[in-house]
Fold this sequence. Notes:
Structural class: mainly beta
Strand content: over 45%
Low-confidence stretches: none
Mean pLDDT: 93
Radius of gyration: 14 Å
Distance between the termini: 40 Å
Number of helices: 0
Order of helices and strands: EEEEEEEEEEE
Number of strands: 11
Amino acid sequence: QVQLVESGGGLVQPGDSLRLSCAASGRAYSTFTMAWFRQAPGEEREFVAAIRGSADITYNHYADSVKGRFTISRDNAKNAVYLQMNDLKPEDTAVYYCVADHAYLAEGTYDRSDKYDYWGQGTQVTVSS
């Protein structure tokens, strides 16, 4: 089992930055794919970013809507994954979920929410002027 706890959400203005953190515990050492999804009110849950791999080599992937603005990173020593969000827009408003899976998810699958076994409780990000 893996437990995930997100933090770092809040209310910000357009153009501001936020850094989300996700602390993993349990069998966190063997989570080869970690990602962030988000869900806005009345919308379906959507993929934001994923990081695949082990300590030596990792691969990052982003949804087109956040590419160039968001950065996902991982600190294996701390069993943590982060999402640095810059130039936030009102359409980024959502509950952000940290997710993880023991598998090294293949291309074309890491952006599917049904592929992840472990989910955090979510953290609210609101971008509004």
